[in-house]
From TrEMBL:
Domain of life: Bacteria
Naturally occurring in which organism (per UniProt): Candidatus Corynebacterium gallistercoris
Taxonomic lineage: Bacteria, Bacillati, Actinomycetota, Actinomycetes, Mycobacteriales
Name of the protein this chain belongs to: DUF559 domain-containing protein
Amino acid sequence: MIPKVAVQTAQRVTVNVPVALEAKVVHTNNTNAARTTNTTAPLTVTVAHPAYTVFTLAAWHSLEDAVVAAEHALRTGALTLHTLHRAAPHFTNLAGAATFRQALRLINPHSESPRESGLKCKFFRAGLPAPLQQPIVHDSARSPIGRPDFLFDGTTGLIVEYDGDGKYGSPDNTEEAFLALHNERRREKRLLSVGLRMFRVHSNSYDDPEMMPDLIQAFHQQEKLRGGAAVPRCLIEGGYRAWV
């Protein structure tokens, strides 16, 4: 049975319904064999449960779409991991169940933006090992350097950061942008000093087909530079595996 949620709203709602289902409408317009119904009265709308929406995205769209939507729902409180996993048996025998099971491995509450959710899907599909999300990295004196988006620990030591458009402040405030950039470069030098390397993904490179090959190349180069030496655990505090 498809789980549903009843949503009560007093806001203006546009509902597209098949002509055969139309009843007691205030105003209608023909829209591709359906009718658009407009009403300003309080309305209860029954919609698919967020867990079913995640399944539908995995089954009919992509792994990335499902994970991005699910983790956004976790951040906003529209969905919990417990509810998502409890709903999973409903979809076991449906087409798309395999992709949904992959999504369940990736979905967690630790991604802080849709791009972080999407990036780990790219890592997963590329066959990379699961990095840590949001670990705190320390220097040799145990002073915290920062909390990167992703850290491939083990014998790699590659940090991946997503730089959104607003990371370095407003483009209209050159002083603020300069200070933010200066602090970020200083942090990057401190990371290099403990044997870690930074790979940055920007808003204009996220969808670039060359981005992942470049990242994979950086991953293997960094692994080679470390010569098989593991990243010391004393440098890393906390963090969560990007998938299980």
